[in-house]
What we know:
Elements: H1 7-22, E1 32-36, E2 42-44, E3 54-57, E4 61-63, H2 72-81, E5 89-97, E6 101-103, H3 115-127, E7 130-134, H4 135-141, E8 156-160, H5 171-174, E9 180-185, H6 191-196, E10 200-204, E11 206-207, E12 210-211, H7 213-222, E13 227-232, H8 234-242, E14 248-254, E15 262-263, E16 280-286, E17 289-295, E18 316-317
Parallel strand pairs: 5-13, 5-14, 7-8, 7-13, 8-9, 9-10
Antiparallel strand pairs: 1-2, 1-3, 3-4, 6-15, 11-12, 14-17, 16-17, 16-18
Amino acid sequence: MTQYMESAELEGWNMVQAAAQAMATFDHSRPARFARTAANGLRPLAPQDPNAALLWDPFHGWSLPAGASRQDVLELYLPIGSATAGRPITLGHIGQSLDGFIATPTGDSCSVTGPDNILHLHRLRALCDAVVVGAGTVAADNPRLTTRLVSGSNPVRVILDPSCRLPATHTVFRDGEAPTIRVCAIGAAGAAAALTRGEQVLEVAACGRRLDLKDVLAQLHARGHCRIFVEGGGITVSSFLEAGLLDRLHVAVAPLLIGEGRPAIRLSPQLRLQDCLRLRYRVFRCGQDFLYDCDLRAVAGGTGNGGGNGAYATVQRVL
Ligand SMILES: NC(=O)c1ccc[n+]([C@@H]2O[C@H](COP(=O)([O-])OP(=O)(O)OC[C@H]3O[C@@H](n4cnc5c(N)ncnc54)[C@H](OP(=O)(O)O)[C@@H]3O)[C@@H](O)[C@H]2O)c1
Protein backbone atom coordinates (compact mmCIF):
# COMPACT_ATOMS: atom_id res chain seq x y z
CA MET A 1 0.00 0.00 0.00
CA THR A 2 2.94 2.27 0.65
CA GLN A 3 3.44 2.60 -3.11
CA TYR A 4 0.22 4.64 -3.30
CA MET A 5 1.49 7.15 -0.80
CA GLU A 6 2.65 10.33 -2.44
CA SER A 7 6.27 11.12 -1.64
CA ALA A 8 5.41 14.10 0.61
CA GLU A 9 3.26 11.83 2.74
CA LEU A 10 5.94 9.15 2.89
CA GLU A 11 8.43 11.81 3.93
CA GLY A 12 6.02 13.00 6.64
CA TRP A 13 5.48 9.47 7.90
CA ASN A 14 9.25 8.89 8.02
CA MET A 15 9.52 12.05 10.13
CA VAL A 16 6.82 10.77 12.53
CA GLN A 17 8.70 7.50 12.96
CA ALA A 18 12.00 9.35 13.43
CA ALA A 19 10.37 11.49 16.15
CA ALA A 20 8.98 8.41 17.89
CA GLN A 21 12.39 6.73 17.83
CA ALA A 22 14.16 9.86 19.04
CA MET A 23 12.02 9.88 22.20
CA ALA A 24 14.46 7.52 23.90
CA THR A 25 17.42 9.81 23.23
CA PHE A 26 16.78 13.14 24.96
CA ASP A 27 15.48 14.86 28.09
CA HIS A 28 11.74 15.55 27.59
CA SER A 29 11.63 18.15 30.35
CA ARG A 30 13.47 20.75 28.23
CA PRO A 31 12.74 22.28 24.83
CA ALA A 32 14.80 20.75 22.05
CA ARG A 33 15.19 21.06 18.29
CA PHE A 34 16.24 18.54 15.69
CA ALA A 35 17.40 18.29 12.08
CA ARG A 36 16.78 15.32 9.78
CA THR A 37 19.63 12.99 8.98
CA ALA A 38 20.25 11.32 5.63
CA ALA A 39 19.26 8.00 7.24
CA ASN A 40 15.76 9.25 8.13
CA GLY A 41 16.71 9.90 11.74
CA LEU A 42 16.83 13.05 13.86
CA ARG A 43 19.96 14.89 15.02
CA PRO A 44 19.84 17.27 18.00
CA LEU A 45 20.68 20.92 17.32
CA ALA A 46 21.80 23.80 19.52
CA PRO A 47 18.89 25.64 21.24
CA GLN A 48 18.77 28.58 18.81
CA ASP A 49 19.74 26.76 15.61
CA PRO A 50 17.42 28.05 12.82
CA ASN A 51 17.73 24.87 10.74
CA ALA A 52 15.38 22.74 12.79
CA ALA A 53 12.97 20.38 11.04
CA LEU A 54 11.17 19.45 14.24
CA LEU A 55 10.77 21.07 17.66
CA TRP A 56 10.11 19.50 21.05
CA ASP A 57 8.27 21.37 23.78
CA PRO A 58 7.84 19.73 27.22
CA PHE A 59 4.18 20.81 27.44
CA HIS A 60 2.97 20.39 23.86
CA GLY A 61 5.27 17.69 22.51
CA TRP A 62 6.42 17.68 18.87
CA SER A 63 5.67 20.47 16.42
CA LEU A 64 6.95 21.92 13.18
CA PRO A 65 8.87 25.19 13.17
CA ALA A 66 6.94 28.34 12.18
CA GLY A 67 6.75 28.64 8.41
CA ALA A 68 7.23 24.93 7.70
CA SER A 69 4.74 23.60 5.19
CA ARG A 70 1.83 21.78 6.80
CA GLN A 71 1.66 18.03 6.36
CA ASP A 72 -1.51 16.16 7.21
CA VAL A 73 0.32 13.01 8.20
CA LEU A 74 2.37 14.95 10.75
CA GLU A 75 -0.72 16.68 12.14
CA LEU A 76 -2.44 13.36 12.61
CA TYR A 77 0.37 11.32 14.13
CA LEU A 78 2.69 13.72 15.98
CA PRO A 79 0.30 14.08 18.96
CA ILE A 80 0.56 10.31 19.47
CA GLY A 81 4.34 10.36 19.11
CA SER A 82 4.47 13.08 21.78
CA ALA A 83 3.50 10.74 24.63
CA THR A 84 6.03 10.33 27.42
CA ALA A 85 6.18 8.21 30.57
CA GLY A 86 4.94 11.26 32.49
CA ARG A 87 2.24 12.02 29.93
CA PRO A 88 1.13 8.69 28.45
CA ILE A 89 -1.57 8.46 25.79
CA THR A 90 -4.43 6.02 25.29
CA LEU A 91 -5.97 6.16 21.84
CA GLY A 92 -9.09 4.31 20.78
CA HIS A 93 -9.99 3.56 17.16
CA ILE A 94 -13.16 2.28 15.64
CA GLY A 95 -13.95 1.72 11.97
CA GLN A 96 -17.68 1.90 11.47
CA SER A 97 -20.42 2.07 8.86
CA LEU A 98 -22.42 5.26 8.36
CA ASP A 99 -25.11 3.75 10.55
CA GLY A 100 -22.74 2.99 13.43
CA PHE A 101 -21.89 -0.72 13.12
CA ILE A 102 -18.50 -2.45 13.05
CA ALA A 103 -19.62 -5.86 11.82
CA THR A 104 -22.66 -7.81 10.67
CA PRO A 105 -24.54 -9.88 13.29
CA THR A 106 -22.28 -12.85 12.42
CA GLY A 107 -19.13 -10.81 13.12
CA ASP A 108 -18.15 -10.31 9.46
CA SER A 109 -16.09 -7.13 9.59
CA CYS A 110 -13.05 -7.56 7.40
CA SER A 111 -13.75 -4.72 4.98
CA VAL A 112 -15.98 -2.22 6.76
CA THR A 113 -13.34 0.44 6.17
CA GLY A 114 -11.06 0.62 3.15
CA PRO A 115 -7.36 -0.16 2.59
CA ASP A 116 -6.19 3.34 3.57
CA ASN A 117 -7.77 2.90 6.97
CA ILE A 118 -6.07 -0.48 7.33
CA LEU A 119 -2.77 1.25 6.58
CA HIS A 120 -3.70 3.80 9.27
CA LEU A 121 -4.22 0.96 11.77
CA HIS A 122 -0.79 -0.44 10.97
CA ARG A 123 0.75 2.99 11.46
CA LEU A 124 -0.92 3.24 14.85
CA ARG A 125 0.44 -0.20 15.78
CA ALA A 126 3.92 0.92 14.68
CA LEU A 127 3.69 4.07 16.79
CA CYS A 128 2.27 2.49 19.92
CA ASP A 129 3.86 0.30 22.58
CA ALA A 130 0.79 -1.84 23.21
CA VAL A 131 -2.35 -2.74 21.26
CA VAL A 132 -5.44 -3.71 23.26
CA VAL A 133 -8.37 -5.74 21.93
CA GLY A 134 -11.32 -7.48 23.53
CA ALA A 135 -11.93 -11.22 23.62
CA GLY A 136 -14.74 -10.76 21.06
CA THR A 137 -12.30 -9.54 18.42
CA VAL A 138 -9.88 -12.40 18.97
CA ALA A 139 -12.75 -14.91 18.88
CA ALA A 140 -14.22 -13.43 15.68
CA ASP A 141 -11.09 -12.50 13.70
CA ASN A 142 -8.18 -14.48 15.13
CA PRO A 143 -6.03 -11.38 14.37
CA ARG A 144 -2.24 -11.13 14.39
CA LEU A 145 -2.15 -7.50 15.61
CA THR A 146 1.32 -7.01 14.13
CA THR A 147 2.80 -4.16 12.08
CA ARG A 148 3.05 -5.41 8.53
CA LEU A 149 2.16 -2.60 6.10
CA VAL A 150 4.73 -0.10 7.39
CA SER A 151 8.13 -0.44 8.98
CA GLY A 152 8.22 -0.39 12.75
CA SER A 153 8.15 -2.85 15.58
CA ASN A 154 5.16 -4.88 16.68
CA PRO A 155 3.36 -3.61 19.76
CA VAL A 156 2.83 -5.79 22.82
CA ARG A 157 -0.58 -7.46 22.34
CA VAL A 158 -2.99 -7.10 25.23
CA ILE A 159 -6.12 -9.25 25.18
CA LEU A 160 -8.99 -8.48 27.56
CA ASP A 161 -10.25 -11.93 28.41
CA PRO A 162 -11.85 -11.60 31.87
CA SER A 163 -12.78 -15.25 32.32
CA CYS A 164 -9.89 -16.73 30.28
CA ARG A 165 -12.39 -18.11 27.80
CA LEU A 166 -10.21 -17.84 24.70
CA PRO A 167 -8.50 -21.08 23.67
CA ALA A 168 -4.71 -20.99 23.47
CA THR A 169 -4.93 -21.98 19.82
CA HIS A 170 -5.54 -18.36 18.76
CA THR A 171 -2.67 -16.90 16.74
CA VAL A 172 -1.73 -14.19 19.27
CA PHE A 173 -1.06 -16.82 21.93
CA ARG A 174 1.14 -19.03 19.83
CA ASP A 175 2.84 -17.22 16.91
CA GLY A 176 5.61 -15.62 19.00
CA GLU A 177 5.56 -12.52 16.74
CA ALA A 178 5.23 -10.17 19.74
CA PRO A 179 4.71 -10.52 23.47
CA THR A 180 1.05 -11.20 24.30
CA ILE A 181 -0.58 -10.47 27.65
CA ARG A 182 -3.87 -12.11 28.54
CA VAL A 183 -5.71 -9.85 31.00
CA CYS A 184 -8.22 -11.59 33.24
CA ALA A 185 -10.07 -11.02 36.48
CA ILE A 186 -8.25 -11.95 39.68
CA GLY A 187 -8.99 -15.58 40.44
CA ALA A 188 -10.34 -16.42 36.96
CA ALA A 189 -10.49 -20.15 36.40
CA GLY A 190 -8.08 -20.81 33.57
CA ALA A 191 -5.45 -18.27 34.62
CA ALA A 192 -3.28 -20.91 36.28
CA ALA A 193 -3.47 -23.14 33.21
CA ALA A 194 -2.51 -20.22 30.95
CA LEU A 195 0.50 -19.48 33.16
CA THR A 196 1.49 -23.14 33.04
CA ARG A 197 1.43 -22.97 29.24
CA GLY A 198 3.95 -20.14 29.48
CA GLU A 199 1.55 -17.31 28.65
CA GLN A 200 1.89 -13.87 30.20
CA VAL A 201 -1.19 -13.36 32.35
CA LEU A 202 -2.16 -10.13 34.05
CA GLU A 203 -4.78 -10.54 36.76
CA VAL A 204 -6.60 -7.32 37.60
CA ALA A 205 -9.45 -6.35 39.89
CA ALA A 206 -12.94 -6.73 38.44
CA CYS A 207 -16.43 -5.74 39.41
CA GLY A 208 -18.41 -8.79 38.32
CA ARG A 209 -17.06 -9.46 34.81
CA ARG A 210 -15.99 -5.85 34.30
CA LEU A 211 -12.22 -5.45 34.47
CA ASP A 212 -10.76 -2.41 36.19
CA LEU A 213 -9.34 -0.75 33.08
CA LYS A 214 -7.59 1.95 35.12
CA ASP A 215 -5.59 -0.83 36.72
CA VAL A 216 -4.88 -2.36 33.29
CA LEU A 217 -3.43 0.97 32.10
CA ALA A 218 -1.47 1.48 35.32
CA GLN A 219 0.12 -1.94 34.94
CA LEU A 220 0.98 -1.30 31.28
CA HIS A 221 2.51 2.08 32.18
CA ALA A 222 4.52 0.40 34.96
CA ARG A 223 6.00 -1.89 32.29
CA GLY A 224 7.14 1.16 30.33
CA HIS A 225 4.33 1.18 27.76
CA CYS A 226 3.23 4.81 27.44
CA ARG A 227 1.42 4.71 24.06
CA ILE A 228 -1.59 2.46 24.29
CA PHE A 229 -3.73 1.75 21.24
CA VAL A 230 -7.21 0.34 21.92
CA GLU A 231 -8.02 -1.20 18.53
CA GLY A 232 -11.43 -2.67 19.20
CA GLY A 233 -13.99 -3.92 19.09
CA GLY A 234 -16.93 -1.76 20.01
CA ILE A 235 -17.46 -3.11 23.53
CA THR A 236 -13.81 -2.61 24.42
CA VAL A 237 -13.43 0.90 22.99
CA SER A 238 -16.75 1.88 24.61
CA SER A 239 -15.65 0.62 28.01
CA PHE A 240 -12.42 2.65 27.89
CA LEU A 241 -14.41 5.69 26.75
CA GLU A 242 -17.08 5.27 29.43
CA ALA A 243 -14.35 4.96 32.08
CA GLY A 244 -12.88 8.29 30.92
CA LEU A 245 -9.59 6.63 30.03
CA LEU A 246 -9.20 7.63 26.37
CA ASP A 247 -7.14 10.68 25.48
CA ARG A 248 -7.97 10.48 21.78
CA LEU A 249 -10.60 8.67 19.77
CA HIS A 250 -10.31 7.93 16.07
CA VAL A 251 -13.60 7.10 14.36
CA ALA A 252 -13.28 6.07 10.71
CA VAL A 253 -16.64 6.32 8.98
CA ALA A 254 -17.11 4.22 5.86
CA PRO A 255 -19.75 4.87 3.17
CA LEU A 256 -21.55 1.65 4.04
CA LEU A 257 -24.91 0.83 5.63
CA ILE A 258 -24.93 -2.42 7.59
CA GLY A 259 -28.43 -2.01 8.98
CA GLU A 260 -28.04 -4.29 11.98
CA GLY A 261 -25.04 -5.91 13.56
CA ARG A 262 -22.31 -5.38 16.14
CA PRO A 263 -22.44 -1.79 17.31
CA ALA A 264 -19.55 0.68 17.33
CA ILE A 265 -19.55 3.03 20.35
CA ARG A 266 -22.30 2.41 22.89
CA LEU A 267 -22.41 4.34 26.17
CA SER A 268 -24.86 4.48 29.07
CA PRO A 269 -27.95 6.44 28.04
CA GLN A 270 -28.18 10.14 28.89
CA LEU A 271 -31.56 11.79 29.20
CA ARG A 272 -30.36 15.22 28.14
CA LEU A 273 -28.26 16.03 25.08
CA GLN A 274 -26.29 18.52 27.14
CA ASP A 275 -24.91 15.61 29.18
CA CYS A 276 -23.64 13.80 26.06
CA LEU A 277 -20.05 14.04 24.92
CA ARG A 278 -19.61 16.76 22.31
CA LEU A 279 -16.14 16.34 20.92
CA ARG A 280 -13.37 18.57 19.72
CA TYR A 281 -12.27 17.02 16.43
CA ARG A 282 -10.36 17.26 13.20
CA VAL A 283 -11.38 15.36 10.08
CA PHE A 284 -9.02 13.60 7.70
CA ARG A 285 -9.93 11.92 4.47
CA CYS A 286 -8.58 8.39 4.59
CA GLY A 287 -9.19 6.95 1.14
CA GLN A 288 -12.93 6.30 0.86
CA ASP A 289 -13.44 6.86 4.59
CA PHE A 290 -13.55 9.94 6.79
CA LEU A 291 -11.45 9.79 9.92
CA TYR A 292 -12.59 11.83 12.92
CA ASP A 293 -9.62 12.52 15.18
CA CYS A 294 -11.21 13.51 18.50
CA ASP A 295 -9.18 15.04 21.30
CA LEU A 296 -11.00 13.92 24.44
CA ARG A 297 -8.86 16.09 26.70
CA ALA A 298 -9.85 19.31 24.91
CA VAL A 299 -13.07 21.24 25.36
CA ALA A 300 -15.45 21.06 22.39
CA GLY A 301 -15.39 24.19 20.26
CA GLY A 302 -13.75 25.32 17.01
CA THR A 303 -12.70 22.88 14.36
CA GLY A 304 -9.34 24.46 13.54
CA ASN A 305 -8.03 25.06 10.05
CA GLY A 306 -9.56 23.34 7.05
CA GLY A 307 -8.37 22.55 3.58
CA GLY A 308 -6.45 19.77 1.88
CA ASN A 309 -3.84 20.12 -0.86
CA GLY A 310 -5.73 18.25 -3.57
CA ALA A 311 -3.02 15.61 -4.20
CA TYR A 312 -3.78 11.97 -3.49
CA ALA A 313 -2.60 10.92 -0.09
CA THR A 314 -3.77 8.19 2.22
CA VAL A 315 -4.57 10.76 4.87
CA GLN A 316 -5.65 14.25 3.95
CA ARG A 317 -7.10 16.79 6.34
CA VAL A 318 -10.43 18.28 5.32
CA LEU A 319 -11.56 20.13 8.48
N1 LIG B 1 -14.25 -2.06 12.78
C1 LIG B 1 -13.44 -2.06 13.79
O1 LIG B 1 -12.87 -1.03 14.15
C2 LIG B 1 -13.22 -3.34 14.53
C3 LIG B 1 -12.10 -3.47 15.35
C4 LIG B 1 -11.95 -4.66 16.05
C5 LIG B 1 -12.89 -5.67 15.91
N2 LIG B 1 -13.94 -5.50 15.08
C6 LIG B 1 -15.01 -6.51 14.99
O2 LIG B 1 -15.80 -6.29 16.13
C7 LIG B 1 -16.35 -7.51 16.58
C8 LIG B 1 -15.97 -7.70 18.03
O3 LIG B 1 -16.31 -6.53 18.76
P1 LIG B 1 -17.19 -6.59 20.04
O4 LIG B 1 -17.56 -5.20 20.41
O5 LIG B 1 -18.30 -7.58 19.83
O6 LIG B 1 -16.22 -7.25 21.10
P2 LIG B 1 -14.78 -6.80 21.65
O7 LIG B 1 -14.80 -5.41 22.12
O8 LIG B 1 -13.72 -7.22 20.71
O9 LIG B 1 -14.65 -7.79 22.89
C9 LIG B 1 -15.58 -7.67 23.94
C10 LIG B 1 -15.19 -8.60 25.03
O10 LIG B 1 -13.91 -8.25 25.56
C11 LIG B 1 -13.92 -8.36 26.96
N3 LIG B 1 -13.88 -7.00 27.50
C12 LIG B 1 -13.81 -5.84 26.86
N4 LIG B 1 -13.79 -4.80 27.73
C13 LIG B 1 -13.86 -5.35 28.94
C14 LIG B 1 -13.91 -4.82 30.25
N5 LIG B 1 -13.84 -3.51 30.50
N6 LIG B 1 -14.03 -5.66 31.28
C15 LIG B 1 -14.11 -6.99 31.04
N7 LIG B 1 -14.07 -7.55 29.83
C16 LIG B 1 -13.94 -6.73 28.80
C17 LIG B 1 -15.25 -9.06 27.30
O11 LIG B 1 -15.00 -10.44 27.18
P3 LIG B 1 -16.05 -11.57 27.65
O12 LIG B 1 -17.03 -11.66 26.53
O13 LIG B 1 -15.22 -12.80 27.80
O14 LIG B 1 -16.66 -11.08 28.93
C18 LIG B 1 -16.14 -8.52 26.21
O15 LIG B 1 -17.32 -9.22 25.98
C19 LIG B 1 -15.80 -8.59 15.69
O16 LIG B 1 -16.76 -8.90 14.71
C20 LIG B 1 -14.59 -7.94 15.06
O17 LIG B 1 -14.38 -8.47 13.78
C21 LIG B 1 -14.14 -4.36 14.39
